[in-house]
Design brief:
Residues 211-259 form the FHA domain. Residues 161-172 have a biased composition (Pro residues). Residues 121-192 are annotated as: Disordered. By secondary structure, this protein is α+β, with helices and mostly antiparallel strands. Helix content is 19%, strand content 28%. It is built from four helices and 19 strands. The strands form five sheets. A six-stranded antiparallel β-sheet has the order 10-9-19-18-15-16, with no helix packed on it. Strand 9 and strand 10 (202-205) form a beta hairpin. Helix 2 crosses helix 4. The two termini are 22 Å apart.
Length: 284
Amino acid sequence: MGVLKKFEQRLEGLVNGTFAKVFKSEVQPVEIAGALQRECDNNATIWNRERTVVPNDFIVELSAPDYERLSPYSGQLGDELSGMVRDYAKQQRYTFMGPIKVHLEKADDLDTGLYRVRSRTLASSSSQSPAGPAGAPAGEQRGGGYGYPPAANAPAAAPAGAPPMPSAPPPGAGRGPQARGQGPSGPLPGAQTRRWIEINGTRHQISRPTMVLGRSTDADVRIDDPGVSRRHCEIRTGTPSTIQDLGSTNGIVVDGQHTTRATLRDGSRIVVGSTTIIYRQAEG
């Protein structure tokens, strides 16, 4: 069973209690959980062959209406999201420099239903080395104060024999997801990536370098939605694949954020008009 599915099942027991109001929010907790997974993937730093360090300190920025709905339950929700990050990191064999914390913040520049995730790697005050295998860091605590500085973080001390942690990700790291079938420097030898999109349960294979989505009959994939422009957006395959708005009237939302261009990863959620598109890719 996937980590996100387990996360949803854990929350089910809370929906009938104090969490009932939370699920009326435009932003769903499972969307935030997926964004935290991507944040780990995008900012993973390889220390050596056996250790990949990911952020452990997260801020989820919400619109004012969503923040007002979710903030009364931020402690419980933060605990559940922290547990989800721990489970995902264990699955991916990631490690942490300190305890995992997830906090909510209000962002006045975001519209209802949109969110942003920021992260950093913080070393535990009692240890300067990574917190061991994900899921079992020594002395881990949940919750607590946040104190997120605007400046870039100073690098944490590296464990003996390991290369120093860079003060910032290398160019391109942490800005876009890494496509499946790739290593740190590109595709793995012999790996082939299949790409497709899913719209209302229908799968559309991406077999060319570009795929135009829109309401026009000339589009590669026609979307019968009055909120979709004739030539709304274009998916461009590559390493990684991207989506580009083509001057549409209503724009595109990718993984909860309004944008004109975005990097795509397996499971990325694209909204055009009132239609949701899921981007998929897999090796083989």
